[in-house]
Amino acid sequence: MKVINDQAIDLALDKMNDFSEQEYESLIEQFTEKQGDLLDFLLTDEEEFDQNEKEIILFIGMQLWYIFQQEDPNLPSVEYETVDRIMEQNEKMLEYFSEESEEDFMAALNGVVDQHAQSDLLKFIIMAIIDNEDVREENSSVAFIYLKTFVECFLEEPKKA
């Protein structure tokens, strides 16, 4: 997967902003058909998220998928085993970092983002979460881990859809 930069992100989001209701429905149908396991993952039953947070995670996930689709229309289908394995790795990372002071936690998180293969996408996720007042501060790091997991699933080179 090629690196997706800020310009590609902005271009894809600008296209999405111009979508009609019918185009959004079509996008959701395509996502459901091509990435059912990822959709199930995004429709989390995580108890700590309220309904607004769950909808925000789903919406950001849809944006991310559309961004990926713009770069690779033949995006591989992701299986739940991959999602589960990557989520487990990211939860361990979050647990490890959470033992740090807030300042050290933020420094470590910035290091992870800056060195990530898709750093611009992770920065987009952070801004999307921070800019949304419906994501409670205490849930922002878990929401980030969910969406980071989503991104990393496409870096795995799973089977073609």
Provide a descriptive summary of the structure in words:
There is one protein chain. The protein is mainly alpha-helical. It has one domain. Helix content is 72%, strand content 0%. The model has no long low-confidence stretch (mean pLDDT 89).
Number of H- or I-type helical stretches: 8
Instruction: Tell me the Rg in angstroms.
Output: 15 Å
Poorly predicted regions are: none
- Shape estimate: globular
Order of helices and strands: HHHHHHHH
Q: Structural class from helices and strands?
A: mainly alpha
Question: Using DSSP, what is the number of strands?
Answer: 0
End-to-end C-alpha gap: 15 Å
Overall pLDDT: 89
| Quaternary status | single chain
Overall number of structural domains: 1
Per DSSP, what share of the residues sits in E-state strands of 2 or more residues?
Answer: under 5%
Q: Give the proportion of residues in helices.
A: over 70%
Q: What can be said about the biggest beta sheet?
A: none
